[in-house]
Amino acid sequence: MNIAIDGPAGAGKSTVARKVAEQLGYIYIDTGAMYRAVTLSALRNRISPGDAAALAKHTESVRIRLQPGENGQLVFLNDEDVTDLIRSRDVTLLVSKVAANETVRSVLTDMQRKLADRKGVVMDGRDIGTSVLPDAELKIFLTASVQERARRRFRESGIQQGVTVEQLEKEIAERDRLDAEREVSPLVCADDAIVIDSTSMPIEEVVQSIVALSRTKLAEAK
């Protein structure tokens, strides 16, 4: 079956989805990395997220490839490994604006659906259960408080990037607003999704909860 994990920035979706996929022997697909790759390419080509036509045309020429690696998923942009580059602060600050572009979402959504055609994938993002894979057999909406998500981001890269927890809180809250208010595939919880608040939960506990839910779903389907 397919598992969709949605939620706001910093909720731990990527880490959780990767670990769930490992335990179930499924394929992990990080859709956020795909939007980040497009954002990085736009930055390199000096295309403003506000220039909808130019961004749309550029996206159609971009090649993105996801590949399993020893330490997680590798992301290739036109055959260049950009796994680390797409996590830069410049990309993080612009990715929501790029993701709001209708053509960008259409092109990447088509790629994502093709990757899930054969089933057995764990896909995370912001509109997987509502738009990309509305028929996913298990849908999870993973969330956490803004304060906790900011603390997590700070522990991951805040010191290296020279930002404070307070700055990250403001940026995450703004990104939540942009994701929720965009016209195309906004961030919403699917009606049939199971909500998991990870604010006070260790990652492994979240992972085991989703693995248990998935095994229950599989048993019910037999």
Mean pLDDT: 92
* CATH superfamily heading: P-loop containing nucleotide triphosphate hydrolases
Number of strands: 8
Task: State the helical fraction.
Answer: 40-55%
- Ends apart, CA distance between termini: 12 Å
User: What low-confidence regions span 5 or more consecutive residues with pLDDT below 50?
Assistant: none
Instruction: Estimate the global geometry from the Cα principal axes.
Output: globular
Oligomer designation: single chain
Largest sheet: 5 strands, parallel
Main-sheet strand order equals 2-6-1-7-8
Query: Secondary-structure element sequence?
Result: EHEHHEEEHHEHEHHEH
CATH topology: Rossmann fold
Q: Which range does the strand content fall in?
A: 15-25%
Q: Which structural class matches the secondary elements?
A: alpha/beta
At the first level of CATH, the class is: Alpha Beta
- The domain count comes to 1
Can you describe what's shown?
The strands form 2 sheets. Strands 2-6-1-7-8 form a 5-stranded parallel beta sheet. A 3-stranded antiparallel beta sheet has the order 3-4-5, with helices on one face. With 222 residues, it is α/β, with parallel strands linked by helices. It starts with a strand and ends with a helix. Helix 2 (31-44) packs across helix 4 (89-99), helix 3 (52-59) runs parallel beside helix 5 (102-115) and helix 7 crosses helix 8 (165-181). It has 9 helices and 8 strands. The mean pLDDT is 92. Helix content is 52%, strand content 17%. It is globular and about 50 Å long. It has one domain (3-217): Rossmann fold (3-Layer(aba) Sandwich), CATH 3.40.50.
